[in-house]
Amino acid sequence: MCFHQEQEQQLQRKVSMAAAARALPAGMDMPGHGRRVKPVPTGLADWAGVASALGRTGNMLRGTTYHTGFPRQDLHVVSDGVVVTAGLALGTHVAFVRYADGSTMLMGDVVVTENELQSVTDAWQAHGIEQTALHKHLLAQTPDIWWTHVHAHGNDAVAMARGLRAGFDRTGTPPALPPGPPTPVDLDIAAMEAVLGAKGSIEDGLYKIVFLRRETIADGHLILPPGLGSTSAFNFQPLGGGRAALSGDCVMLTDEVQNVLKALRRGGIKLVELHNHHLAEDPRLFFTHFWAVGDGVELARAVRPAVDATDVVPPG
Questions:
Q1: pLDDT for 184-219, tens place per residue?
Q2: In CA terms, which of 31, 119, 136, 180 is 20 to 30 Å from 207?
Q3: Is residue 3 classed as helix, strand or coil in its secondary structure?
Q4: Nearest-CA neighbor of 198 among 243, 231, 155?
């Protein structure tokens, strides 16, 4: 190879890398470039301005993630003959994380009706809130519902919260409600946990269990706290007599995808979506939503091979 050809190839590589970097979300650098930034611990007081801008209080997860839920209790959604509760698949969630360089990352998954989607998108785009996924959690649901992942990164967390709120205000998302009394869960939880090899929790009348990726996941140059945007979640809504509706999301590396999809189908689980949550994560992650209705213990047995096909662990 002559000297001029080598120079031309080097120039082309630099142009390609620059183009790839421009295609990443705001504030994101190419993965693996050597200057990754870690999240730092925060408390509720650090997010008072965000809570005020969002119009409701949130909670801390694992000492680093400020989380706020916006359940769509205004919607009456039916899928596969099941009236879907807000906790099963209609829960908007947003999370804020502070980093050692003083910046903040916002991530979230937002429930919108089909009639709301374009207007909400316009509001977010006007406020610098990016979308990294647009997808479904349910099959053949009425009315038509969409889920969109949101992302932002910068030094003004309150401005991000105001941008989010501008979109939420174009939806029918209701005000926060006080927590109700505990609701009995008619499921054989002990048997389900024995099958899944992990402990879950009861929230809003549902049984939920999550698993975390073992790897360190970075979104561009920002290291994600454990469990943020990289979990497998299984939600069981009791239907009576030990039966449940199952909805969830399974996180996979590229070489795990086909094994998980095959394992779910062998168990009679319906596949809903194969998609990404991020645009610049490392390692690359894929997510699949799924759905099933049946005996709770049998559903747990059906999804256990999919869990085993991924490198995940229960939360510590």
A1: 899 999 999 999 999 999 998 999 999 999 999 999
A2: 136
A3: helix
A4: 231
